[in-house]
Write a structure and sequence with these properties.
It is built from eleven helices and two strands. It is mainly alpha-helical. Strands 1-2 form a two-stranded antiparallel ribbon. The relative contact order is 0.11.
Length: 231
């Protein structure tokens, strides 16, 4: 692909920040459906840019430009700050001040040296706040329940459990890519509809359920070691 192709991949990653900025504008215009569409678009970009980067050999082509740092900057904006604005403006929490919990927790999570491990896991809950706020909004979850979920996941950022990196964790990677790919298409289809059926939204939780279930399953050996059990 050459150097031009590598730059195009970096531009593709950076475009999430542009769509995230547009999402914030949409949020404060109360155009929540458009904001959801844009948040889903940034999720799609983040799910695919890594594969493009490896295919284009961006490190080899542009060694002085840190694509991983760019990815972290863009992810913090689109996965944390944009959803925080959504939480505030859509009144998904009892008081706007509660958004400090996910923002501060994510500041910690993104700053860990082992936030992404060498064997391709995330350490602590990987700040999927965009997914959470879309579900809270579309399912019309009350502020009290929304607060409980937000605080619980904020605490989970600090708990050093390992969560799968779907496109790179080797364990069950083909299955994870298939299940979560189907979920992303399903979730996106529901997210852009003007009035999605709540039953289909609840059923779409198979994606997050699979993600959390497999991640917890892969943590069992560490639990056993901590408990002093053999194996």
């Amino acid at each position: 692909m050459g150097t031009l192709g590598a730059w195009c991949v970096h531009l593709y990653t950076a475009s999430s920040a542009v769509f995230g900025t547009w999402a914030i504008y949409s949020i404060y215009q109360h155009e929540y459906q458009l904001a959801i569409y844009l948040m889903l678009l940034t999720l799609l970009i983040d799910s695919t840019d890594g594969a493009f980067a490896r295919a284009a050999d961006v490190r080899g082509r542009i060694p002085w430009f840190d694509g991983r740092r760019l990815d972290d900057i863009v992810d913090f904006f689109t996965y944390v700050l944009v959803p925080a604005c959504f939480l505030i403006e859509a009144d998904l929490l009892p008081h706007p001040a509660w958004t400090a919990a996910p923002v501060l927790a994510s500041c910690y999570g993104f700053s860990r040296n082992d936030a992404k491990t060498d064997d391709h896991f995330f350490t602590g809950f990987p700040s999927y706040w965009n997914v959470l706020v879309i579900y809270l909004y579309l399912l019309e979850i009350g502020p009290a329940t929304g607060l409980a979920l937000t605080l619980g996941l904020s605490v989970a950022v600090f708990v050093p459990l390992r969560y799968i990196y779907p496109s790179r964790t080797r364990v069950a990677r083909p299955v994870s890519l298939a299940v979560l790919g189907i979920w992303l298409l399903w979730f996106s289809w529901l997210g852009v509809r003007p009035d999605p059926d709540p039953r289909w939204l609840w059923l779409s939780l198979f994606g997050p359920g699979y993600y959390l279930g497999l991640s917890l399953l892969l943590n069992i050996p560490a639990f056993r070691r901590a408990a002093g059990a053999p194996g």
